[in-house]
Write a structure and sequence with these properties.
With 181 residues, the chain is an all-beta fold. The protein is 0% helix and 60% strand.
């Protein structure tokens, strides 16, 4: 359970995750979020892995209340990996973590024990209310430089539009350093 507090010390938000390990290729996650007196939601997601241990897809459905209005959600995501190592592969203890938490880019929800670096990621979250339908679409391409040991040294993430063309959003760059002991 994660709790966020205001400067005055009162709880502003509570998010609870429940994990069910179904098999070596499937983990189910129930996320319950209370974000205020009139805003909350529950999402039920299924994360599917290939035999290499890499997440390849996620699907989910949920319901909630936003500003007092009922909302239904559907979510899909696809992950395509390279044949190169993930930056945190073989980090002792990291394979025991189930979930990294999530942010608005929906990529950092990747479970910690994946084996290979990402090549592309696509996600769509559709929200439906009595007033209409909204869609949040994310699409990223990763360009990674690997060191002589086969691990990422520099990773660039470029946001793409629905057609696969780069958007005006500047690339994000992640630089990795390793201390071998």
């Amino acid at each position: 359970m994660n709790k966020e507090y205001s400067d005055s010390g009162t709880i502003q938000a509570t998010v609870t995750y429940t994990y069910t390990h179904v098999s070596t290729t499937q983990i189910n996650v129930k996320k319950q979020a209370i974000l205020g007196p009139n805003t909350n939601y529950t999402m039920n997601n299924v994360y599917t892995y290939n035999n290499n241990g890499n997440m390849v897809s996620s699907t989910g459905t949920g319901t909630g209340i936003t500003s007092g209005n009922s909302v239904n959600y559907t979510q899909t995501g696809t992950y395509v990996h390279t044949n190169q190592n993930y930056a945190f592969k073989n980090v002792k203890g990291l394979d025991k973590l189930i979930f990294n938490g999530d942010t608005d880019d929906n990529v950092s929800i990747l479970f910690s024990n994946i084996k290979n670096s990402l090549g592309t990621f696509k996600s769509s979250i559709v929200s439906t209310t009595a007033g209409g339908t909204g869609n949040v679409f994310l699409n990223y391409k990763y360009t990674t430089t690997f060191n002589s040991s086969g691990y990422p040294s520099v990773e660039n993430r470029q946001e793409l539009d629905a057609s696969g063309n780069p958007t005006a959003t500047p690339q994000e760059q992640f630089i990795y350093e390793y201390n071998y002991q």
